[in-house]
Amino acid sequence: MYLSRTNHTIMKKREFLKTGALAATGLLLGGPEALAARAFAPQNAVPQDRNAMMQAAMERRTRLKAPVTARGKIGNVEVSRLILGGNPFGGWMHSRDLRYVPALAKAYLTEGKVMEIFQMAENCGINTIAGHPVMIDILTKYWNRGIGKIQWISDCGGNDFIEAAKRSVDAGACAGYCQGQNCDALVEKGDFATIEKGLQILRDAGLPAGLGAHSVKTFQACIARGIVPDFWFKTLHHLNYWSAMTDKPRRDNVYCEDAEETIAYMETRPEPLVAFKVMAAGAIPPAEGIQYGLDGGGDFLCLGMFDFNMIEDVNLFNEALTKVNRKRPWRG
Questions:
Q1: Torsion of CA 177, 182, 185, 189, to 10 degrees
Q2: In whole angstroms, what is the distance from residue 172 CA to residue 88 CA?
Q3: Within this chain, do residues 166 and 306 fall inside the same structural domain, yes or no?
Q4: 19/28 Cα distance (integer angstroms)
Q5: What's the CA gap between 228 and 223, in Å, rounded?
Q6: Do 79 and 35 share a structural domain?
Q7: pTM score, whole prediction
Q8: What is the CA radius of gyration of the chain?
């Protein structure tokens, strides 16, 4: 029978929908584990090895070898040496020029999913999350519902460090610090009085009080003014990744331009260092970034993690601890 172009198009669409649905059904067989295994299995694997390779890939993502047991002290607070980073839960996703990523993360990170990630972190031995006061509402629900007890280091972020410090104290933070970009900006303006007052509010409440920065010069300037924190919160990563593009203007692609200076300066300081952005917001492979952060003197690492990559990061962190090669003594 002759098919007109229109009917032919309809038939083609129907065939596509039928075969596409069947293909999708086949792809979903085995659930998300099978999907993840396919995603991470080498594409050139020979057929007889594929099942074993898929299983090995899945184990790297889903089989927790051991929880994080390494602990340290920030002030009088016992903190797991691996800290859950809170940026994704506050709506901040460094994605360079991929503008859809923040919306994608927001759609994925429902209230239930975020609480699931908090609980997963605790099951992995992580007892602390660090992040913005915008998380107060969901953390309060998580605690009040008895789901878990993860403790919170507030970055006291926002437009007013002093007010954010007060709010963080009232909301139950276990520690607080002047968020990196804010601290950099306050030092740039010479507003050391605001930094001192915010730290004092935290200390008056019995909380360890820290300083954050993207530039180690911020720390040096504070020390020169006699402002000594209880801990440091600093970006720390190398620049050996293609999107660093060190010869071009910055476009949300570099977060630590002074790694060597930071490492050298931290060797002279006795306060604990929380190193963050060790993977340059996902540009550096986890194993590489984690090892660099620990070897470079990080006493604690703060990693932004989702449920689908947390177990792998925990396994890599524990493995990196066994291979640490650092000059700086462990602090905390």
A1: -70
A2: 21
A3: yes
A4: 14
A5: 6
A6: no
A7: 0.82
A8: 23
